[in-house]
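Appendix B. Raw example, untouched.
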Amino acid sequence: MSTDTTGTEMLVEPKRPRERLVDRRIHAHRRPDLAAAQDLKHPRWDAEPRPAPEDWPETHLPRVELMDRLFQVPFLSDATAGTRQVARALNLMLDWLEGHPGATWQDRWLASGASESGTEEWTQLVSDAVPGSRPKSRDHVANLKRAMLLLVLGRAVRPSYTWLMGQSWAYYLTARAKPVLDPEGFARLDAICAETGRPHKATRSAFTRLVWILIVKGGSLREITAADCVELRVEMDNRLKDGHGRTLFYTLLHEAGFLSEEAPPNLRLALLPGQLSCEQLIDRYDIACAPVRQVLIDYLNYRRPDLDYTTLLSRARVLGELFWRDLERHHPGIDSLDLPADVVTAWKERVRIIRHEHAPHRMGKERKLFEEIFRTVRGFYLDITHWATEDPVRWSPWVAPCPIRRNECDDNKRRQRIRAAMHQRTRTLAPLLPALVRSVDDTRRRSRQLLEQAIATASGEHFTVDGSMFCRFEPPNGYSGKVYAIEEETGQTRDLTGEEDQAFWTWAIVETLRHTGVRIEELLEITHHSFFSYRLPSTGEVVPMLQIAPSKTDAERVLLVSPELGEVLAEVIGRVRNGKPYLPLVSRYDGHERVYSPMMPFLFQRRPAGPNSMSTNRVVAYTTVRKWLLAAMTTAGLTAVDGSEVQMTPHDFRRIFATDAIRAGIPPHIAAKILGHANVNTTMGYAAIYPEEVINSHRGFIARRRSLRPGEEYRMPTETEWDEFLGHFELRKVSLGVCGRGFGTPCQHEHACIRCPLLRPDPAQMPRLTEIITNLDARIAEARREGWTGEVAGLEVSLSSAMEKLAAMQAVSKNGRTTDLGMPTFKSPYGQVIEESRP
């Protein structure tokens, strides 16, 4: 092993190449590191696309037989105009091809070089190469294209994707190719498009893509594989600017049942990266020492059954890149896990500092989680030492002293800092949640009203909503399934369909997160099958329940659906159904595990192009949720106490839910079950947002005071005292609602309930309060006429309080009435005292 003799430039970890996005969406035979591993249960597409055939009977036909074949139905129908001109152009094409070397028409076509151009310059090549040909007129070029179309449909030649994408007569090619290449298969697709209501404009491009595959690969529609579709999609991403029909052709094949059962339900899932094998994970880092490389691979394979894929990726990166590859870079020739002290010391210093070129904004900064790296390396050494006792032949040669001490893995201080920051974040965001809820609800109602008004307005007509004037606008691109309007004040073209869709789903996500406290992945995995009913054994009451699928702790749990949550989920189900008796079946891609789910009726699914578009439904992505929440916070204009901008993530709702539950009196172990925490300390960590010393001191103070007080104060109440207590609540009913003053406290306002802030107004008494306000206005007017200035001041105070009560009634009636099904609601607990629970 050599020592580190490199300069300072070797301290910087080299930048890993980052390909274009289109290069990352490529199939297995080109990028195995992004392909699905062979040992997966659900491979997403075939390992290899079908190769283009190199030889077939039609390309060997003599010229006379080929001409006779091409001028028969269905290649050239009797109704085709200009048959003589097409025959002359076909002879010209064959003369040109015969001028190039090759045993078949395909060989001659490839030798001509026209297949590589990707443009229509091949018509000029034909005209220039054949003596006596006509000049390049419009009719002459059109006849050459028709002749080339006959050669393609007759399968005398098979042009490449590049050549096909460069032609301007793609749609004409599709219309002529459907009855020739696979009439039964295309008839099946036409029937599916008619059943699903897809218009011709939406399917024309998809049929063109399928014709391209049949021309290049041969066979029928049933022989197309998912890998063929992925290959074509990559070619289109590289060469086409038009985005129409890039995925619909795959969806049609899947709906028709032409693809294999293992194929993913849509092309988007087939393009996403899959899980890598342990060998592929380690080989990303170009480890030079083959024995150590094999040890790392064997170690990860041994640990893989116990790890989720995200943890496996992290272990592979730490051991392969940050540990061993770093040692090889600074100590070339190293081949043993038994590391000298100076090598270990130098590595520990390097790993504390970020040295990646692909992260220049973090270059030179201290790595926040370097203890995790130390812990992973220490576990690697200790695992090998332990396994050597079970399998000495395999692991004993690699047993070595662990270079990481136990205390170096201690990250308690860092965790305390993170917890303190999390608590401060919860203290900042919790008071803002009610305002955010009101804002997203108002945005949903306003965007829905704007969309409905625009739908009822003809194109080019004006309409007004909330004082703003709009003009209905129809895009020139044709059918899009969206409603657009131009705002007259700003001149901005607004996508009203997209705005309403985003506003609705933002409202649904915010309401579901704050009422359940579920993780974001658990929210997106809720399906229609997650609901079931439960009959309470004590009362026989039937309550709705929501089953949360196993997530982080691999343990499912059941939540009680409150009336508010039930209303939200009912609207979500109605929207996704869209008038149908069932929810569409879609597949969800798990970006962490890099696998896709079976087809299921997920609740949080939508059409990204709009509810009325011809695109397929897909589950809302986590990044989309983050983007919507940031937009909602911006729309609400919420800021911190110091005026700084705040951002709310999906997990912030979970922390606020846990805090409110614990502080409202829910026992910690019950809250842990509701949140799905395996350890109750995790739940307490969420909720303990106030200094622990203050809480413990207060609990001790209460315990000492109770021990000094007479025992009679803690006796059971007598019947008289209990009747007095119940009678207090009977006296709380007043004309405008319910009095909220505590038991044993006198009325401080001498029963002037309209001024009292403890009055809880009843919306049913809104007409009565309106009469009181009218009477107050009349009395104020009379007092001003008579010059009773003191009376005016008192009446104005009462009028202001009455207006506040009326606004509160209107807010309650706006949300509608709900029926309590027994779910405990967590009121805002700020300012309450947490009492120590008794056994």
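End of appendix B.
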